[in-house]
Amino acid sequence: MKIIAIANFKGGVGKTTTAINLAAGLKNKGKKVLLIDIDPQANLTQSLGIEEFKHDIYSVVRKEAMGEETNLSEALVKASGLDVIPASLDLASAELELASVYGREHILSQLIGPLTGYDFVFIDCPPSMGMLTINALVASDYILIPLQAEFLPLKGARSFLKHFKLIQKLNKNVKLLGLVLTKYDERKKMNRQIKKELAVEFLPEKVFATQIRVNIALATAQERGTHIFDHNPHSNGAVDYADLTDEFLERMNP
Question: Could you tell me the pTM of the whole model?
Answer without folding.
Answer: 0.94
